[in-house]
Amino acid sequence: MKNEYQPTRAISYHMRDRAQTLRHTSPPAEQELWSILRNRQCGGYKFRRQAPVGIYVADFVCIPMKLIVELDGPSHDGTVRADLEREAYLKAHGFRILRFTNQQVHEELEGVFQMIFRACEGE
Prior knowledge:
The protein is of the alpha+beta class. It has five helices and four strands; from the N terminus they run ααβββαβαα.
């Protein structure tokens, strides 16, 4: 299929290094969400953190379910246009995108988790 995203091992060194740097410098909200998504804790679904997806790096991605979870914190202030372009690219490759704020993760972690789980289940 033309627009079907296919993960590949041929990720550029730049993208791999950028993703690795982002994993090592993740904000507290991202670490908090990762603590409940890692090791298939979300209904057995495997998530990757700061993973290259095409020309972008997704905060969290479940490749089999074509689901990306993005956290919006201060780094996203003033990036509305870039975020829209990124979202259009990812959607064109068949991904669904859930967005949460850092504040939502800190204050409503269980609710955020339930929304992610329901999205994985196709609800």
